[in-house]
Design goal:
Pfam families: Response_reg. One of its GO terms (biological process) is phosphorelay signal transduction system. The protein is an alpha/beta fold. The protein contains 5 helices and 5 strands, in the order βαβαβαβαβα. It has one domain: Rossmann fold (3-Layer(aba) Sandwich).
Length: 130
């Protein structure tokens, strides 16, 4: 099964790395370098919501938590699985992600791209893993 996935990270190398991994597995990928770019895309009514969004937390401008808050407030990407993909692994960050209805939390430094891919598909198909 092919899924539509948005990847949001200010690190161009990681965007390219994850994008290639997901595309090679047959998924439709869109990448965004900031929370602002993600929100602008989600606000376009003519584009179907993605199945999942992989969202970094630490980014200049609108960070991942601020993007999540805006998505909730504006009712954007409803039904989309939100997976935090960050090097921030503090319990307080994970708890805040849960409170903001994130469906998954992956610590970048602890997961190779194939594990990120597998966890994303698992979350889309089976629900929250946080």
């Amino acid at each position: 099964m092919s899924y539509r996935v948005y990847i949001v990270d200010d690190d161009r190398f990681l965007l390219d790395l994850y994008s290639v991994k997901f595309k090679n597995a047959g998924h439709d990928i869109s990448v965004f370098g900031s929370g602002e770019d993600l929100l602008a895309a989600l606000r376009k009514a003519d584009i179907p919501a993605p199945d999942a969004i992989l969202l970094d937390l630490v980014m200049p401008g609108i960070d991942g938590f601020e993007a999540l808050e805006a998505m909730q407030k504006e009712h954007l990407a409803q039904g989309t699985k939100i997976i935090i993909l960050s090097n921030q692994g503090k319990d307080s960050d994970i708890e805040r992600a849960k409170q903001l209805s994130a469906d998954g939390y992956i610590i970048k430094a602890s997961a190779i791209p194939s594990e990120v891919l597998a966890e994303t598909v698992r979350t889309i198909e089976n629900g929250a893993h946080i």
